[in-house]
Amino acid sequence: MKFGQVENPEEIDFTLPATATETISLLNKNRKQEPFEAYVGCAKWNKADLKGFYPRGTKDELVYYAQQFNSIELNATFYNSPSKEQVITWREKTDEGFKFFPKIPQSVSHFGRLLNTDEKVAAFVDATVNFEDRLGMAFLQMHDNYKPKDFDRLQAFLEGFPKGYPLAVEVRNGEWFTDDAIQQKLVALLEKTDKTNVIVDTAGRRELLHMRLTTPFAFVRFVGANHPSDYDRLSSWVVRIKEWKVAGLQKLYFFIHQNVEVESPLLAAHFIAELNKAVGTELNIPNKGNGSGQSTLF
Questions:
Q1: What is the phi/psi pair of residue 159, to 5°?
Q2: Domain ranges in the chain?
Q3: Cα–Cα distance for residue pair 8/87, rounded to 1 Å
Q4: CATH architecture for segment(s) 9-279
């Protein structure tokens, strides 16, 4: 994942912004007695990207991946909307408790730009509901050049999206964040339509760290810089998540990317170990590699 990549990560201030007061109010209002749930994973499971993660002789990468992690940010569906049969095949390779977080196809978000996409959305939803209990939450990621001037188009899309199907939304253009009135308008729409506001932590786009939740679920896409600072950044997130959990956070969806994805499982193992200690989760700490020299991050 190259989005937000910088040449000199050591020059970036990676301090997490303060949590928006509205976020704390929302979490307090939605506090429940049910156990906190955390899902942590990578963006892909294929061996080419996660080279060294799979033991020699692994016959099925998804089966092994799902034994190590409890979720996957399913970017494969961005390029091609899956068939019902493909979804069932993926589901049957995982055990109870594993969740898929499929990305809305680019034919809807990037090529269609949310116009005349009803049939494509219906096909995507009809296929992915076959994940059944393995469906976590889909997410819509708009192109960086999708601007607030097309707010009405986004509003119509979200209001018309199939009810009851969980969806998170990621906008990337800076204009959504530099004007407070625009950002508040977006937040109001997401709250009204019960859509989760995606938070992106990447070196070159710090404005995407808006810290404004719109549901009692936190959907975080963390992009490492293949730099030692990645450890400290993840530690800061553990502290923040603990604060949100105390305030009333119900679920965490946290996905770890790298500009060089081969290191993603290593960062994830570090993050999961710290999260377990801080908030009492009992997530499996994934294997860091197959002994081929990949035992440390840098």
A1: -70, -25
A2: 9-279
A3: 40
A4: Alpha-Beta Barrel (3.20)
